[in-house]
Amino acid sequence: MSIFSNLSLNILNTAILFLNKACEVEYLNQSAEQLLGYSCRQIKGENLFSLIRADFDQNTLHQFYQQRQSGFIEEAQIRSAAGLVSSNIMISRIELEQESYLLLEFQSSEHHANIRKDMELQQQNRVSNHLIRNLAHEIKNPLGGIKGAAQLMERKLPSDFSNQYTQIIINEADRLSDLVGRLLLPAEPEEKQSVNAHLLIEKALEITLLQHQSPIKIIKNYDPSLPELLLSPGQIQQSLLNLIKNAAEAIEGESIDRAGEIQLKTRILHQHTIGKVQHKQVIRIDVIDNGVGIPDTLLKDIFFPTISGKNSSGLGLSIAQSLVQRHGGIIEVESKPRHTCFSLYLPLEYNND
To answer: Which residues form the Histidine kinase domain (predicted)?
Structure first.
């Protein structure tokens, strides 16, 4: 058994290639075999550049080898037996059993773009949380004063005077106070439970349909093999509710010849990266609508609390993103006319009890 076999590299989603000083292939893992279209047995001992055409050459790799430096080639274009691929390549010189090798780690450009997008969403969520919490604190104190003044006014009014208007003030102050309390949720999730994700989706869908009178066509594309999730059910159901309500609002007022449609889809992903963290298994929940779509000018900042739809306060999507990120997950969005998809990703955790 070779020294490379002992490294358990075949379990990695990253394509790994080892070269010797002469740029001859010593080893490639299964992900690299799929990327390049060759098996390790086929090309072991072959010069890499006799097998592929790339926009970097052997001299580039020799420089890394001689200078003992690590480097990065961004969006390298590589033509191999598998066709033309665009990949980011991390190059390092490493020592194994007193021998020196060049280690090439290939990641698709799309993979790195997704990591950057997730990191931007995570940063956006931190800014949103800071803004929402500051706003909530600013609102909380005046609300107490408004309610107290209304209660005092009610006691001072003549007995034959209707208290209808003071009750409206008190009730609305209570409602806003409850909203502020929810905006000041603790940073950590509530107690986790083992939950079927489809039950949470169904509950959120039921609430949404009760609140919307317009007919909505619902398409369910569930993965029946989905395992239970260990999570805070109230928080994730709230996130799903916000996403489904957002989809329902997006299709309100659709023309008679085209019914508003929401598709709910679940899948399990393997070796999926959220931000910079790679997870063995991730649950993906898609909420798709056939509304007019989100304008490009709003799409990048859609999770900021100040961005609102036609009937929303602008807080729903921001709160949904915040609750999901507390679980190590993320919500991503893609939109074009007649197809907007919010994808909720949650790392799969197991209950070991």
So the answer is: 134-350
